[in-house]
């Protein structure tokens, strides 16, 4: 019955009903861009950035793709492939501006956490495959709420994009936010979604992935315990577990990464307000 009622609505009215609060736009590596891809009187198109589908939002002004920009993207023009309902394909473009992220120096006592031995490397590779699949999962929804809440309340101890040196050795940039809270602090779902992966991993420790729909995914790590299981449906603010320092961590905190079209982007862009520092 719900689908029948939707079908009876004029398309423009449906698009207007789907309009919602959207994240802040920052067209830089690790940021987000919004690109107009089709008029409001068309059906929602499929949009691809490279080989990955992107989230598409409706508004009275038309359909807009919300695109996550990989942190290693060079400044310059980028293009999207737009597949319309009638089978026609068009191209939409956007421009990425330059951004330099600051460095962060960390000290980790366990040498195996910095230079893993062969058995540990095999474990890491196996775990990474599972997590990589969860990061790019696509669950099509008519509407995806893109306003998120931080999974825990506390001091922002490490921002997105920091170029990390661990024990003096360069490592991958920090692809999330770290919120400093005591072990055992409740950790909650940033928004509604489906639990797509739960595990205890070498680097990330106890981890929960939440699929919010249309390629918008939260990953929350270093938990001391998890209270949800794969396949669970969660509501906004529902408890997922408790904070901790499992995996490679220098102290108790909550690490939160947000993926959009398979790439990690700055979670602060999705928040209604800033986190305390």
Element-level helix/strand string: HHEEEEEEEEHEEEEEEEEEEEE
Q: How does the helix and strand content classify structurally?
A: mainly beta
Count of alpha/pi helices: 3
Proper CATH architecture of the largest domain? Distorted Sandwich
Give the N-terminus to C-terminus distance in angstroms. Answer: 48 Å
Helicity level: 10-25%
Largest sheet: 10 strands, antiparallel
Number of strands: 20
Low-confidence stretches: 1-19
Tell me the overall shape.
Answer: globular
Task: Provide the residue-averaged pLDDT.
Answer: 88
Cα-atom radius of gyration: 19 Å
What is the CATH topology of the largest domain? Glucose Permease (Domain IIA)
CATH class membership of the largest domain: Mainly Beta
**The CATH homology group name of the largest domain:** Glucose Permease (Domain IIA)
Measured by DSSP, the beta-strand proportion falls in 35-45%
Domain tally: 2
Describe the structure.
The protein is mainly beta. It is 12% helix and 39% strand. The strands form four sheets. Strands 9, 12, 13, 14, 15, 16, 17, 18, 19 and 20 form a ten-stranded antiparallel beta sheet that branches. A four-stranded antiparallel beta sheet has the order 3-2-6-7, with no helix packed on it. The radius of gyration is 19 Å and the shape is globular. The N and C termini lie far apart (48 Å). 34% of the residues are buried.
Looking at this protein, list some descriptive labels.
single chain, 277 residues, mainly beta, Immunoglobulin-like, Glucose Permease (Domain IIA), 4-stranded antiparallel sheet, 12% helix, 39% strand, disordered N terminus
């Amino acid at each position: 019955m719900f689908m029948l009622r939707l079908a009876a609505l004029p398309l423009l009215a449906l698009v207007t009903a789907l309009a919602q609060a959207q994240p802040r736009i920052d067209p830089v590596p690790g940021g987000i861009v919004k690109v107009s891809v089709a008029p409001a009187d068309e059906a929602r198109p499929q949009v691809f950035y490279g080989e990955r589908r992107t989230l598409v939002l409706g508004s009275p002004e038309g359909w807009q793709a919300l695109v996550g920009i990989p942190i290693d993207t060079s400044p310059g023009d980028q293009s999207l492939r737009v597949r319309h309902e009638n089978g026609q394909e068009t191209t939409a473009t956007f421009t990425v501006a330059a951004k330099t992220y600051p460095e962060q120096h960390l000290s980790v006592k366990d040498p195996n956490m910095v230079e893993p031995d062969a058995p540990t490397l095999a474990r890491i590779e196996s775990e990474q495959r599972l997590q990589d699949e969860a990061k790019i999962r696509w669950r099509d929804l008519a509407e995806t709420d893109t306003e998120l809440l931080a999974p825990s309340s506390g001091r922002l101890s490490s921002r997105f994009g920091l170029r990390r040196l661990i024990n003096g050795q360069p490592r991958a940039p920090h692809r999330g936010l770290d919120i400093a809270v005591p072990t055992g602090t409740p950790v909650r779902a940033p928004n509604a979604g489906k639990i797509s992966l739960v595990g205890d991993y070498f680097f990330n420790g106890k981890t929960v992935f939440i699929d919010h729909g249309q390629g918008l995914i939260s990953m929350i790590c270093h938990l001391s315990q998890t209270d949800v299981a794969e396949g669970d449906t969660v509501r906004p603010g529902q408890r997922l577990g408790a904070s901790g320092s499992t995996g490679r961590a220098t102290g108790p905190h909550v690490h939160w990464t947000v993926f959009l079209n398979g790439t990690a982007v700055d979670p602060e862009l999705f928040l209604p307000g800033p986190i305390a520092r």
